[in-house]
Write a structure and sequence with these properties.
Structural class: alpha+beta
Order of helices and strands: EHEHEHHHE
Number of strands: 4
Strand content: 15-25%
Number of helices: 5
Number of domains: 1
CATH class: Alpha Beta
Strand order of the largest sheet: 1-2-4-3
CATH topology: Ribosomal Protein S8, Chain: A, domain 1
CATH architecture: 2-Layer Sandwich
Helix content: 40-55%
Length: about 110
């Protein structure tokens, strides 16, 4: 699975969202899923990039630009993603972050 770190070098939210758009545009036709690394934030409540990435993904889902997304923490917390996790388990098999429930990542599915 391809990984894209939109948090590397601690960009602004706008730059991180452009990186997200680029990653989605480049890989939606060739990869069934990608992992977005956005970080969690040091405040303990989730960082601005994490919140913005999840909001952008929600909007893209509503527009039909992505098939689904699963927050990393949904693998260890009941958040309503159990059906999606089951549906995409073959694509997620072996990914260490899926097993850990990493709050700083989100999986994005295109098909």
């Amino acid at each position: 699975m391809r990984e894209f770190d939109v948090h590397f070098n601690q960009p602004t939210v706008d730059v991180a969202l452009r990186l997200l758009d680029n990653a989605l545009r480049l890989h939606r036709m060739t990869d069934p899923c990608i992992k977005i690394i956005h970080g969690y934030g040091s405040s303990g409540a989730g960082g601005a990039i994490r919140v913005a990435v999840r909001q952008a993904l929600s909007e893209k889902l509503d527009k039909g630009l992505i098939k689904a997304y699963i927050p990393g923490e949904a693998f260890i917390q009941p958040m309503g993603y159990a059906d999606l996790i089951h549906r995409y388990k073959a694509l997620l098999h072996g990914d260490v972050d899926a097993k850990r429930g990493n709050d700083g990542i989100t999986f994005v599915f295109f098909r």
